[in-house]
Amino acid sequence: MNSEKHIVSAFDRDLEAVQALVMKMGGLVEAAMLDAAQALDTRDEELAARVRQDDKAIDALEEQIQQECARLIALRGPTASDLRTVLSVMRIAANLERCGDYAKNLAKRSVVLSQMSPIDGAAGSIRRMARSVVILLKDALDAYIARDARMAADVRLRDHEVDQMYNALFREFLTHMLEDARNITACMHLHFIAKNIERVGDHATAIAEQVIYLVEGRMPEDERPKESGISALSAASIRQE
Amino acid sequence: MNSEKHIVSAFDRDLEAVQALVMKMGGLVEAAMLDAAQALDTRDEELAARVRQDDKAIDALEEQIQQECARLIALRGPTASDLRTVLSVMRIAANLERCGDYAKNLAKRSVVLSQMSPIDGAAGSIRRMARSVVILLKDALDAYIARDARMAADVRLRDHEVDQMYNALFREFLTHMLEDARNITACMHLHFIAKNIERVGDHATAIAEQVIYLVEGRMPEDERPKESGISALSAASIRQE
Question: The PhoU domain covers which part of the protein (chains A, B) (predicted)?
Fold first, then answer.
């Protein structure tokens, strides 16, 4: 009995250590997104270079988390909800790694964009969208640590706002492209940036869904309304015709 | 001794069953990509609708694989390379699920595009790119089943060709946009389609890297040359100026 208790607490200690790594990783990803958006807005190539460089630390943390989780499974043999938790941590780390990649991609594109004529208001809008999505990501991770299914459900709903920001930006960029062909290249980059930020929102949602799964034992069933810019493009195309 | 042998073969049997599910999932994803590209090329809205509908089966398979893997870990308590294998299966299933999403997205956009004037040669080029990437995905999964690190390394190298196809398409679409603003909306959709097919190639590479990890015990260290259209856009922008 005593030995079993010992095993349980060893698992909890290990889990806490690996969760601390996830939160650290989350902090790095949030900073990378904000810095990349700032680099775009202020045309700061040095900051962009730093974001690209720092993505290596995010990748290394993911690797470490995956290995610690595998070690934890092998060593502690968790079952039922403990096993679910470890598998969730692995998925969340994978989600964060992708978000880090998007921040790195934003930083790369910001350098290319800094060589072109700016598009009115675009960088500011992108930066606002990045801030919103970082808050979403932060809340998803907080919901995970607190095992707060309600907060997680709220993150899922709020991702819809990010989708709407994306659709609005999409139309805005398209208008710039239609108005002046010289804007096309820059707007293509901005489109991809907006799309990638929208995807970070999707990853925040995926993390929130893991929380709901952990707390309630099943994935949320209702599919969220997703249009991914396709409707925005259709609307723009109607306007164009 | 006998009991230990029994446990080992039970693990192998379970692993084989779950690997069969992965191969089935791979087959569905490959068919979805090819069908979606065909729907785009032949403006077949019915086929596109079927691809979108069938994505549910792919998602359900992923869920089943993740659950079987968790069950396998809890029940058999694999360690060392057996545990690595199960974790790889989970990652590969997640990769395939994303590829299924991209096929579904292609099918959605193909319906929108079928309402617009076609862009010369675009759908055919997209279809060729989809075929290449499906072969890549198939080879990555075959390399996994055969635990063939050499074949996996070959997949990694060949993904570069898909990247080059993407960059070429990128320039082509940009040219159409610059030539005639009425092409912009359709070309934006085509751009996103090409980008998503290129991402399927990235997932094939991720699967190949899992194979190398399983066989050699470590991830390949050399970073593959990745430009993701950023260089293509820069080149196009220079041409434009």
Answer: 23-109, 126-211
